[in-house]
Amino acid sequence: MDRNTLLLFAGIGGILLLASLIGWLLKHRAGPGPHPVIDNLNARINAWWAMVLVIGFAFLFGNTGVVVLFYCVSFYALREFMTLTPTRRSDYPALVAAFYFALPMQYLLIGIGWYGLFAIFIPVYLFLLLPILSSLGGDTTRFLERTSKVQWGLMIAVYCISTVPALLTLEIAGYEGRNLLLIAWLVIVVQISDVLQYVCGKLAGKRKIAPNLSPSKTVEGFFGGVALATLIGASLYWITPFAFWQAGLFALLVCLLGFAGGLVMSAIKRDRGVKDWGHMIEGHGGMLDRLDSVCFAAPVFFHMVRYWWG
């Protein structure tokens, strides 16, 4: 890790220490016994400690560590998605291809930096291969619906998430060897936007944006959270190849895409009749519950940065 990376993690550690202290004080003042809101807050803080430590550990191993980390993230995210998606026996060849061919191949292509193939491998070749494999079983019951679910799961959990470590493949003049910081910037801005939208919504939220999809999202929370996250993203321009105003525009873009992604993923959960994708992360639900915003922001961010700077 270079100096800027260490400073960034030191700052994140300081914020988490402050949050842990606030959580402890709230729990101490509330007295013994269960307190759902405070207990949930402390569970989320502890989960953030774990996630930051895992990401920091991966950063210690450089590009290889980050690619392996996101490979594991995609595996668990795809598993969560497919667990909530009803399948039939004739879908097994497509599922095997998704888990044991498409997933490792996508990250292998990113590991060797073959942009020309990893950019279209899943959206083109796998989208054609999966329905072929499903049709071999001869089962036509809800065929289009079943095939699209596997395709959509692969697109979200593998292709979209893989564009985060794909930032390592970019060759940006004057920014050589610092692409890990670009990943850190993207994850921080998108995640802190979610947190600030929630906090602003709790403090001042009155008008709900999409009550049928996500009752906790409000107009006030959306504008307040996106505005604050955009300012934070702009203030972190020093860890990116962008100028202050460019970092602000990119931060606004990924915040808006992250919000839209959260709505889409909430719609899928409501369709499946569940509140969370899973229970892997205490206080945060499943892997996809934390990455729904990143899934939609990362691909657009990657391709725009590659177009303008790569």
UniProtKB/TrEMBL annotation:
The chain crosses the membrane at residues 7-26, 46-78, 90-109, 115-138, 150-168, 180-200, 221-239, 245-268. The keyword Cell cycle does not apply. GO terms for molecular function: nucleotidyltransferase activity. The keyword Manganese does not apply. Keywords: Membrane, Nucleotidyltransferase, Transferase, Transmembrane, Transmembrane helix. Pfam families: CTP_transf_1. PANTHER family: PHOSPHATIDATE CYTIDYLYLTRANSFERASE. This is Phosphatidate cytidylyltransferase.
